[in-house]
Amino acid sequence: MTDNTIYQFDIQKLNGEQISLSDYKNKVLLIVNTASQCSFTPQLKELADLRSEFPGEDFEILAFPSNDFGGQEPLEGEAIAEFCEIQHVNYPVFDKIRVRGPYAHPLYKFFADKKENGKLNSVPRWNFHKFLIDKSGLITDFYYPFTKPMSSKIKKQIRRLLAS
């Protein structure tokens, strides 16, 4: 049987340090591909507001900058960190990755393949595509970029997963 959780993947912090997504076991996660120069970039602040609405250890947002759409993430490493600090980001932002196509990060290849994740086939069509992960590391849902982080739809799902 294959592991259909996100915990099998390693990710890289902006400082180059590798960590495992298993570090986030027992947390509800919202995983988002971001960009600093997109019309959806104001969602960085909305994501911070969402993070603040669910204080404590059981909910986290994980942001993955990507330049896959319209060249809207020209920044790298420390420049991404500085931009996020100006935006008052209060959640982890990881190193820039590819989120679609043959060079996509393994996590995003996993999201795109129902045979792997057991739930859905979902490839981001643009920046700020969101994946909701339950406390056991399973994908439960996804949201297109136009679904704002503070939407009642997303908050209701997070509350439900936190209660289970």
Strand order of the largest sheet: 4-3-5-6
Q: Spans with pLDDT under 50 lasting ≥5 residues? A: none
Q: Indicate the CATH topology.
A: Glutaredoxin
CATH architecture: 3-Layer(aba) Sandwich
Large-scale geometry: globular
Major sheet summary line = 4 strands, mixed
Helix content: 25-40%
Q: Between the first and last Cα atoms, what is the distance in angstroms?
A: 25 Å
- Over all CA atoms, what is the radius of gyration? 15 Å
Instruction: Output the CATH homologous superfamily.
Output: Glutaredoxin
Structural class: alpha+beta
User: Tally the helices: what do you get?
Assistant: 5
How many strands?
6
* Assembly level: single chain
Q: What is the H/E order?
A: EEEHEHHHEEH
Brief synopsis:
With 164 residues, the chain is α+β, with helices and mostly antiparallel strands. It is built from five helices and six strands; from the N terminus they run βββαβαααββα.
Description:
The protein has 5 helices and 6 strands, in the order E-E-E-H-E-H-H-H-E-E-H. It is of the alpha+beta class. A 4-stranded mixed β-sheet has the order 4-3-5-6, with helices on one face. It has a two-stranded antiparallel ribbon with strand order 1-2.
Helix/strand layout:
Layout: E1 10-12, E2 18-20, E3 28-34, H1 43-53, E4 59-65, H2 77-86, H3 106-111, H4 114-117, E5 130-133, E6 139-143, H5 152-163
Parallel strand pairs: 3-4
Antiparallel strand pairs: 1-2, 3-5, 5-6
